[in-house]
Specification:
Number of helices of chain A: 13
Order of helices and strands of chain A: HHHHHHHHHHHHH
Oligomer: homodimer
Strand content of chain A: under 5%
Radius of gyration of chain A: 32 Å
Number of strands of chain A: 0
Largest sheet of chain A: none
DNA sequence: CCTTGACCTTGCCGCAGCGGCAGGGTTTCT
DNA sequence: AGAAACCCTGCCGCTGCGGCAAGGTCAAGG
């Protein structure tokens, strides 16, 4: 048989067969005078064995091992390992599909894949065009994606988000966009912000390991000077609370 | 933040981030005077979005598309397609595991992954050292692997395998190993072989499409001249029966 | 001051299992 | 005789990074 014929018999492509030759999985058969590979039925039997194993999901290296050690004992080992691997993949896929289902169910409006808990929180918050509020929401999605914040954080933030008084605080922060870093309104606003956040929020944020070096600086760099001052003061106050 | 810091915040490797830059999935941030990449919190937010999507199983190209079309409508499409794909993979894995389970249950002796139906058939056949019988078994595994033979073939072959008289036929075929192609024993043996195979076997073999060109020649080449003659006669007789 | 160690930079190779293509030659059918 | 359908070798491409090489940079400690 020529390569196309054995390929048709066994049900694989000629490219695959040549690849098997290339990696030494199948021996190169004799050649006809014109250079064509001349396959025997025994080659087809061998190829079919290879094929069965690869279709089960074994890697070519594993197939080579199994065919080399004709022990048959090895095969059972490899198959069991493979089954364990497939089981792992299966649960992985199920988990992903579960999360996908959650997203698909809750997302026909949002253009962002976020956890349902955060989605609920954001939905509760009043609509606003405040830039600093938008920034806060972005930071929350970051927290959400890293998985650092659990359900408790969102639950604790719930009343805060629903409180219309918070909007006024955001607006006062917005007003500091062009103010100098020593604006007199800074300390007062910082104090009010600290007071507004309930203790539970702070308690719910996992404090395992310090915040990554450089993150705070980067966070402050996001804001105008006077706003950064406010944020810095608020953060300091929280760190104090953490120590207390 | 430096690259290692943003990587720690979001929970990815620096290599992945650089890769995202390389393929244009994330914009290259500004550089510090020393050449280090300087990331902002906004970069972290973006990276986190990318990360969420890739973790769901989207390809980097798909992520790029989703982030480009901020429509949010596109996202739902991609996610649904992804879910369909995952569902397909899941059933695929289940099917493989099912076959694996069958093999693992029935195989603690055989060194070959074959269908249980064929395994049962081979177990029924009496033990023999006949080379031509061994060849036949190999050819059956080939048939088994290609999926051409269904359960009916094996069922029809059952009585034949269990018949000890068949052993004598194999031995007579073996005896022709060194005989010339015009040995007088050939026609009689061929006729007896044809007579031995029940009609159901022949009927059960699916005859969709001719046998692959070149296969018969290769099959005949497996045998010594006189044996090949027998096989050829048997095949001819079957083809005749097929026409009738 | 010098070293060590922990960072950062660019860039290229490797991975699995083939598919595709280029740039030939052969056989076969019409 | 020409076209279609085969065959050959060989190399690049895909995915999503990981690893390694061969450096530059920066902070802390002996």
């Amino acid at each position: 048989m020529r390569i196309g014929e054995i390929a048709a018999v066994v049900g694989v492509t000629t490219r695959a067969i040549r690849h098997y030759h290339h990696v030494g999985l199948l021996p190169e058969p004799d050649r006809r005078p014109n250079g064509y590979r001349a396959y025997t039925v025994r080659d087809a039997v061998l190829l079919a064995r290879v094929r069965r194993l690869t279709e089960l999901g074994l890697s070519l290296d594993e197939v080579r091992d199994v065919l080399a050690d004709d022990a048959g004992r090895d095969l059972a080992d490899v198959l069991e390992e493979l089954d364990a691997d497939l089981a792992r993949q299966e649960t992985e896929i199920k988990e992903r599909r579960r999360r996908l289902a959650v997203l698909l169910a809750a997302e026909p409006g949002e253009g962002e894949p976020i956890s349902p808990a955060l989605a609920e929180l954001l939905a509760k918050a009043p609509h606003t065009t405040s830039p600093t509020a938008a920034k806060d929401r972005e930071h929350l999605t970051l927290l959400d994606a890293t998985g650092a914040g659990g359900e408790e954080v969102y639950a604790a933030l719930g009343p805060l988000a629903a409180d219309p008084a918070v909007l006024a605080l955001y607006e006062r922060l917005d007003e500091l966009a062009d103010a100098p870093a020593d604006d007199p309104r800074i300390p007062g606003l910082a104090a009010e912000l600290v007071a507004a956040v309930p203790d539970e929020v702070f308690a719910a944020i996992p404090r395992d390991g310090a915040v990554v070096t450089g993150f705070k600086e980067a966070l402050l760099a996001e804001y105008a000077p006077a706003q950064a001052e406010v944020v810095r003061l608020v953060m300091e106050a929280f760190i104090e609370r953490g120590r207390g």
